[in-house]
Write a structure and sequence with these properties.
4 strands; alpha+beta; single chain; 31% strand; 3 helices; 30% helix
Length: 100
Amino acid sequence: MSMETILIRYRVRPDRLDEHLSLLGAVHEELARLGPPGFRYLTLRLDDGHSFVDVAMGPELPGPLATLESFRSYRAALEERCEQRDVSEFTVLGSYGMGE
């Protein structure tokens, strides 16, 4: 089973930041509760406070995300909350302590 990896970088509009953080928190809480095997999802908030990087890793992405009610709510108005957004696929060439 091969591991796919997607990196999503985006900047949230300042007036939508609190809403975004609440929706994002619900996604991470639901993932923690369900514990889908072989799936990893990391969100980083950059120093400007409005930019984020999400990294999703797992077989057959988007994996369990599409089935989560919290993720559907999160995605529903993501484009409206963001000033910019970019999605990239990449290959991990090396890592230390970051899983497979």
